[in-house]
Amino acid sequence: MISYRPLEGFAEYEAAVEVQRQVWGFAEVEIVPSRLFMLAQRIGGQAIGAFAGERLIGFCLALPAIKRPGEIYLHSHMAAVLEDYQNQGIGRRLKLEQRAEALGRNIRLIEWTFDPLELRNAYFNIERLGVVVRRYVLNQYGTTTSKLHAGMPTDRCVAEWFLDTPRTRAILEGAPRRREPVRARIAVPVEIASLRRRDVARALEIQKAVSEQFLESFDQGLAVTGFERSEAFGTYLLSEWEP
């Protein structure tokens, strides 16, 4: 039985630090420290855990942010689930817990970043949660020590999750929805996951080509509103879109 609740006390904050070590494999200097989890909760952010019994097996961490005067939103900085508990719906439930807590405080937007080359994560964010993407940041976090990043630039899409729109509610409920007309597509080969391990030079070529397409599309005012999967590609679908 998995339960979900805010983290409580430094023992649980330290457990979240250990989850980071296991999921990302960061060097110690890059680990988000336990005191930041405490601080996030005290200044209006979130530190929500997923527990198997008493054991912390996943978490999400968000910080309060201001987009423009008077417009407060949450920036979801980290979300992680231990490998043995992945692909069981726990990540989605953590995001839904984030959403419910935010709406309870009348916060209507959560943003986070994700790697556009991580296709499973892209599908989850876009098709299962209903985020849109209108911004692309080159090498946002610099080069990290995580094995997951393979020493490559940390290019990131910025996910915008508008929490209480009819579009988002329909996606979360699995209801039929009207798809926005597709104006452009950005295809990423599925083999990118293995290329990061065996041919980083080729992976870098793909990353550069993808980044150029995203930047050009966003300069034209398009937004990512959908994602298609095939055996060979994960494809971002871009449309004209306004919140």
Please describe the structure with a list of short key phrases separated by commas or semicolons:
243 residues; alpha+beta; seven-stranded mixed β-sheet; three-stranded antiparallel β-sheet; 10 strands; 35% helix
Descriptive overview:
Helix 1 crosses helix 2 and helix 6 crosses helix 7. This protein is globular. Strands 1-2-3-4-5-7-6 form a 7-stranded mixed β-sheet, with helices on both faces. 35% of the residues lie in helices and 32% in strands. The model has no long low-confidence stretch (mean pLDDT 94). Strand 4, helix 3 and strand 5 form a beta-alpha-beta unit.
Return the string of H and E elements.
EHHEEEHEHEEHEHHEE
Tally the helices: 7
Low-confidence stretches: none
Distance between the termini: 37 Å
Strand segment count = 10
User: Mean pLDDT, as a whole number?
Assistant: 94
* Class by SSE composition: alpha+beta
Gyration radius, rounded: 18 Å
Task: Based on Cα principal axes, name the global outline.
Answer: globular
Which sequence of strands runs across the widest sheet? Answer: 1-2-3-4-5-7-6
Portion in strands: 25-35%
Give the helix proportion (percent range): 25-40%
Which sheet architecture does the biggest sheet show? 7 strands, mixed
Write the layout of secondary structure elements.
Elements lengths: L1 E5 L2 H16 L9 H9 L3 E7 L2 E14 L2 E11 L8 H15 L4 E6 L4 H11 L2 E6 L18 E7 L3 H8 L10 E6 L2 H7 L1 H20 L2 E8 L3 E8 L3
Parallel strand pairs: 4-5
Antiparallel strand pairs: 1-2, 2-3, 3-4, 5-7, 6-7, 8-10, 9-10
